Batch of 2 targets.
Target 1
Amino acid sequence: MREIGCLEITKAVDGLCKDANFLLPKDVIKALEKARENEESSCGRAVLDQILKNIQIATKEKIPLCQDCGTAVVFLEIGQDVHIVGGNFYNAIKQGVKKGYKNGYLRKSICHCFTRKNTNDNTPVIIHTDIVPGDKLKITFCPKGGGSENVSTLKMLKPAQGIDGIKNFVVESVKQAGANPCPPVVVGVGIGGTFETTALIAKKALLRKIGEHNKDSEIANLERECLIAINNLGIGPAGLGGRTTALAVHINMLPCHIASMPAVVNMNCHSARHKEITL
């Protein structure tokens, strides 16, 4: 049994909050650069130029990539041979978020649903936990912006609608979202499971590196087909027209009940932020 202290966890989360908001993953930058090379619209190219310049400024000056520093979403993979010591595990994560958003001068966006009173520390934290083999703790921090989250869609499809029904749902969801999620977007799709699990696997799909397809060849082909159809919509960077509406479509699938076929679309904006650490 390996012990990991709460102070170490808090320190790690503190750093993840800042790094995720300041430093865009390399795979996202590479995808944006490739999009700039291939974009046919002069307006679209100009938008992508500004996005890439913004990334350089944020990296150099250690300032947020976007003024929306997001809801604090944390994915945990806890080795079954790990023992958390020195306090409450979830509280250690909460303290890390509080410190990261304060010390990193990150915008705190979490408020009461009705009164809209801000919690002033960007908590509570949304935490998803998986128990896995081993003696390590993997923490993935994803600051989820409001604009892209607001256009999330869920549909309980009929099994008879099949793959074509899924494809139509995904493309139509992006079409209806238009410029609101700040394209070019990364489209996370969940298929199967139950009402709540399909939403979770859609969000997890956003963590996959751009350029990596689902290992199931049928799902990988669906990802490619959806991406082509989405980029043929003409929405383009910032919604101003062009061929680059999405950088990638990532699909996760679970088996489901014989009477059901739930599907969820959850998007990341062009600032597809997430960082991880393994303790």
Target 2
Amino acid sequence: MTSYQLHSDHIPGRWVEHEGKKLRWLGGTNYLSIGTHPLFQEKLNEGIKKFLQNWGSSRRNNLQLSVWEELEDLFAKKYDRPAAALSSSGMLAGQTALQIAFQLNPKALLNIAPNTHPALWNRPYQPFNGTFNKWEVTLVPTDIIAIDGTGSPWVEGIDFDFAASLAKENFLLVDESHRIGIQDIGITTEANLIQTASLSKAYGIPAGIILGDVALIDQLKSDPFWVGSSPPNPAFCYACLHAQEAYEEQLGQLKHSIKLMDEGLKEINKSIKRLHGYPTFCSSSPDLFEYLKGKGFLTNQFSYPNINAPAICRATVSSSLTDEDMVELIDALINFKDA
């Protein structure tokens, strides 16, 4: 099977139904399963009662809701960055950051690392077609550099040691959508560091975030590209702001499950790619998807971001899985053999 379509009337937690069977869900990027936590549900209900609806105004509207600035301050402090700006999506966060980087360095070229998410693409620039080692050799002090915090869609560990040698003239844009909320995103560099992320993954809210220096964020917030965009839904921002204990609890459960994988998967079929300390694994093997389905687990299997590329089997361990689920999954992966 190269891909499949699953239509559902709810977001899966631990279980999902497919082809008449109840399977453990390993798809999507709902790392913390935050929507299942009672505290998050409580705070989201409070947020809906407080704000009633979405607020699709200009970012410079005379009426401003304090929840946006409060959540920006929380993210800036949480990730030890000077300032933050919320957007309505991770895609918009990345494109807004690119706009500002080009305005501040109009003669620069955009140098995109291999496997970088389209949020940091800008036509006619394309991701480098080669290895990371070969890509690093191409970097020059005038570049705007775009890169993912971890490989996408392939699970790859990115060595950010190169960032320490970048020039102060460089702009380093990092899409942290798949690390924020579940891993450390600290990067040491003299370059102008801008980190962007979707908050719909680990944080489970329809929003994006941009992290950077105060002067850069101030300029970003005065730019028409940001001013003309809509803010994120205030009810979800309220829930995120006031349910931080829920996030910590869910993260603790996820780290426990990851530790079980790290300890149990010392040796694994070479077609399966995973990182120590990370909840996602993937494979180009055409057999893994059906094999895991037969063991009671449903993964993703589709082409991304190039819809004409071979399908990738990608699986994510979320906070909703139990120890029993993890034992069965680890056993299945240990015993997987390519056809």
